[in-house]
Specification:
By secondary structure, this protein is an alpha+beta fold. The protein contains 15 helices and 16 strands. The strands form three sheets. Strands 13-12-9-10-11-14-16-15 form an eight-stranded antiparallel sheet, with helices on both faces. A four-stranded parallel sheet has the order 3-2-1-4, with helices on both faces. It has a four-stranded antiparallel sheet with strand order 5-8-6-7. Helix 4 packs antiparallel against helix 5. It starts with a strand and ends with a helix.
Length: 394
Amino acid sequence: MNFIFISPQFPKTYYRFCQKLRDNGVNVLGIGDTPYNDLDNVCKDALTEYYYLPNLEVYEDVYKAVAFFAFKYGKIDYLESNNEYWLRQDSKLREDFNIWGPKFKNVIEFTSKSHMKKYYEKAGVPCARYKISSTLEDDLKFVELVGYPIVAKPDVGVGAAETFKIKNDTDLINFHNHHYTIPYLLEEFIEGNIISFDGICDEFNNVVFCDNEIFPPSIMDIVNENLEVTYYVNKEVPRDVYEKGQAVLKAFNIQKRFFHLEFFRLTKAKKGLGKVGDIVALEVNMRPPGGYTPDMINFAASVDTYKIWADVMCYNKTTVDLNKDKFYCIYVGRRDRLNYVNSTASILYNYHEHIKVHDRMADILSSALGNEFYIAIFKDYDEMQKFKNFVLQK
């Protein structure tokens, strides 16, 4: 099997997807924008061959790299990056080289926030009302319908980048004065906790492995206001989350992919959407959750999601034992601009049995995930909360 992996060196741990494919006997061919000599040795060892390009944004160059591998190794069976930023380009390459997997028209449906809503509705999950921003006059009519605040977000975008809460007419006028060149989605504001249903599904849209994460109320505020961030992987997946998530995968006909489906769990009843505790659609991401979250899932469920994914790609099932000890796994991100009571040394000393990772976050991801971070596991929810408070105490 020939598998092209786009950007195997970034994010930092993505070489592990390649590593597990290689362990399964796959010919793993990397294309990335880091010079070969600058790759970590573990990444080099996971690849059969690597093709360096200064700029992965130049489609013609990436096309030539894929053509080179096809000429040298024969038919390409799979091409993937597992990275939101490259999903559309991945799909065009699959189309041009007749490679199995979602093509451009399919990827449009799950990377456009407006397109994805019809699939949530097909799955029986209510969605917030929305419109594509047009004229100020038309947008004001939408506000008359749903009321302030509203949320403005790029129709196609990654995470909470360039996403804003619009609280009044002045905010809306200021938004229009920026003259954004990309389509923006305006959406009614939902009061709820953000939760996710993450995992890997097989060729028939069936969940092979899954988990549930609980996020802060507003990733948007974290990015825009440079706030601290914490989130955690739950010990168990609530039944309603599993059922809604499986229905969404079926509606999208998602095959052999990592998925990250986001929902609100309402903290305030919303007419037309549900009562407190009900699940409302947020957005879908048909790739792994961001940052170090795949590793957090591994720590929480005592599994190897990189291997599960590689097994599914190769065999449509996995040999990984999914019934091991479960933990809460929390991510706590600090900001360099803030002064904290407890030093790094103190945190590592007091929680050395719990901490799995302590590191600096890559600058490109720091707006959402903080500058310095800790990942730790706990059997007890209250102990996890004490750890979070200890790390963030001012």
